[in-house]
Amino acid sequence: MTIGALPYVLALVLMLIGLYVIVAKKNIIKIILGIAILEYAVNLFLLLLGYRNGGAAPIRSPEQTDNVVFAAGAVDPVPQALVLTSIVIGVGCLALMVALAIRLHEKFGTFDMTRIRELKG
Amino acid sequence: MTNLLPLFVAIPLAGGFLAPLIGYGSDERRAGAARMLALLVGALLLAGSIAFMGAAARVCWIGDWIGTSSRPVGLSLVCDGLTELLLITVNSIAFIALIYSWSYIERFTGRSLYYCLFLIMLAGLNGVVLAGDLFNIFVFMEVAVIASYALVAFGVERPELEASFKYIVLGSVSSLFVLLGIAVLYNLTGQLNMALIADRLVAVGATPAVWLAAGCFIMGFGLKAAMVPFHAWLPDAHPSAPAPISAMLSGVVIKAVGVYAVCRLMFNVFGMTTPGGAMYANVLITLGVLSMIIGVLLALGQWDFKRLLAYSSISQVGYVFLGVGVGAAVLAGGGPAPVAGLAIFGGLFHLVNHAAFKSLLFLCSGATEYGTGTRDMHNLGGLKHTMPVTAGCCRVAALSIAGVPPFNGFWSKLIIIIAVAQAGYWSLAALAALVSFLTLTTFLKVQRHVIDGDPPAYERQPREAPGAMQLAMVCLTVACVLLGILLPLHQGWLIKPAQRALVSGPGYATAFGPPGMTAQIAQATPRVEEAGP
Question: What is the CATH classification number for the domain harbouring A109?
Answer without folding.
Answer: 1.10.287.3510
